[in-house]
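Duplicate of #3305? Posting structure anyway:
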């Protein structure tokens, strides 16, 4: 196993398999990397597959900022059945009449999807990991508690139908979704079915992109076990954030936590690099200065 002193800082883009929790992937990465300093940028449900961005060592400081980026999914929505979890892992709680499902037109489907596109207010699934008074929502469900979750603002940039396939008493809709962090795809499935009056839930979900990191650059756990590949922290930051190169004097000031002038930076985090190409910090503009939101000392 790699020694802790030899562990490089960077990101690992994992193609998560179904049936494994995000925490399970993190545990596997800790063993492969030889360090406990590992985290992920945005949970995937056990049922879901696809891109899970893992941070190792100093790159864990990038994760909270990466989690705010846009995400892309391919999914299958089954109309005609409602489940307790809003996905295929929960028991079916209601089934619509087959005639009602068969009567859904493409025009009605497109209108239902249009209503869930753009800036929307979304009520998360009750079996989500959202905390209510310090307790996970799914824990309250398991304990039989009756409660409501408040709606939250999210943005669904695109919600596109790729295919529609009728089945016995159901209609499977294959979609792609591009959305902001915090959007629940199973809640979109639930709300689409509710809007059409037949109920709905998610039967398959694959995340194909988190910010600039897509499925083409992801590696399976089997591949990583054979060849542990890590994206160096400098490359990872340059791909995810606008780059700002500073001179030696500016680099020294930032290294001591001192704000420097940054009058021309656009809003949002920027990756700052020193003359030697090393990542120094993530900063945000604040009244003409650079405010450090994450530092990466040598």
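Output from current build:
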């Amino acid at each position: 196993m790699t020694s802790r002193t030899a562990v490089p800082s960077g990101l690992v883009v994992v193609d998560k398999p179904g049936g494994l929790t995000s925490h399970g992937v993190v545990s596997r990465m800790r063993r492969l990397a030889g360090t406990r300093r590992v985290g992920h940028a945005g949970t995937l449900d056990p049922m879901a597959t696809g891109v899970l961005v893992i941070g190792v060592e100093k790159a864990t400081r990038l994760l909270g900022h990466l989690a705010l980026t846009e995400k892309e999914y391919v999914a299958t929505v089954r109309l005609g059945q409602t489940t307790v979890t809003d996905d295929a892992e929960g028991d079916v709680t209601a089934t619509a009449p087959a005639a009602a499902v068969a009567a859904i037109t493409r025009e009605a489907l497109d209108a239902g999807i249009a209503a869930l596109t753009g800036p929307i207010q979304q009520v998360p699934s009750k079996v989500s990991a959202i905390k209510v008074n310090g307790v996970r929502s799914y824990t309250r469900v398991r304990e039989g508690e009756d409660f409501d979750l408040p709606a939250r603002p999210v943005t669904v940039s695109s919600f596109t139908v790729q295919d529609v396939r009728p089945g016995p008493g159901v209609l499977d809709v294959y979609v792609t979704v591009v959305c902001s962090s915090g959007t629940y795809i199973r809640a979109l499935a639930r709300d689409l079915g509710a809007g059409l009056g037949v109920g709905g839930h998610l039967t398959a979900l694959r995340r194909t992109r988190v910010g600039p990191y897509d499925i083409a650059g992801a590696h399976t756990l089997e591949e990583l076990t054979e060849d542990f590949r890590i994206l160096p922290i400098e490359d990872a930051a340059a791909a995810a954030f606008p780059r700002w190169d500073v001179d030696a004097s500016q680099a020294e000031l930032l290294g001591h936590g001192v704000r420097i002038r940054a009058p021309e930076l656009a809003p949002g985090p920027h990756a700052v690099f020193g003359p030697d190409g090393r990542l120094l910090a993530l900063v945000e503009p604040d009244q003409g200065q650079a405010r450090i939101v994450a530092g990466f000392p040598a």
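Confirmed duplicate; merging threads. The first helix runs from residue 22 to 33. The chain has three domains: 4-69+211-235, 71-207, 241-295.
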